[in-house]
Specification:
alpha+beta, 2 domains, 12 strands
Length: about 220
């Protein structure tokens, strides 16, 4: 049997596409950060940037799709010496603590070779600069909860859900499924604090007769 409440950890992600530029001995490095929620989306964003900056020398990138234990990483040096572009950018991405992001550093070669150390520093700085100006949002920590209600308390509990959602739409608790048998069973999903508050309301409205159901 599983627990009655399942929690997915919240994390920060880019709220909007951002850019920042640095230069080193004539070469320009444009850092671009955006939110991507899948590997195909990251690759599509890169394809779009290659078209947008078709005259650039390199489009070095790194991405992190997901967060924590369920993250997928990717990177590319895009023709720069191995380990001088993608890996430094990925290190910055991993150190930022964000999820669902891609960072692309577009380089226009300025005629002077920077050497291995110079490239690592430039790509690192460009990635750091763009992340420093990237606004973020937090993916809300969500909770699922299954409860069983006596039928004579179903309508008051549904009304409590409606009123809570009307009062605070951004933290509304949704009913994702209902089963009607001997009692009414509601499958709820929403921000953790809001679900806990609704459960407390249900306990009051049912005089403690609400039952939290373990889910397999």
């Amino acid at each position: 049997m599983g627990s009655d409440i399942g929690v997915s950890t919240g994390y920060l992600y880019p709220a909007a596409e951002s850019t920042a530029e640095i230069s080193d001995r004539g070469s320009r490095f444009l850092g671009i950060c955006a939110c991507v929620e899948s590997v195909p989306a990251a690759r599509e964003f890169l394809r779009e940037l290659r078209g947008r900056y078709a005259g650039a020398s390199h489009h070095v990138y790194a991405f992190a799709v997901g967060h924590g234990a369920s993250v997928t990483h990717g990177m590319s040096d895009d023709g720069e010496p191995s380990g001088t572009g993608g890996r430094p950018v990925l290190a910055v991405v991993q150190g930022a603590g964000l999820g669902d992001l891609v960072v692309v550093v577009v380089r226009w070669f300025g005629g002077t070779k920077l050497g291995t150390g110079g490239l690592v520093r430039a790509y690192t700085q460009a990635a750091q600069q763009v992340l420093a100006v990237t606004p973020t949002l937090r993916r809300v920590q969500t909770t699922t909860l299954v409860v069983r209600l006596p039928y004579d308390r179903y309508d008051p509990c549904r009304e409590a859900l409606r009123r809570a959602a009307e009062k605070d739409p951004e933290n509304a608790v949704c009913v994702v499924d209902e089963v009607f048998a001997e009692d009414a069973t509601l499958h709820l999903c929403g921000p953790e604090a809001a679900v806990e508050s609704i459960l407390a309301s249900f306990r009051d409205l049912t005089s403690g007769r609400v039952v939290v159901v373990d889910v397999p």
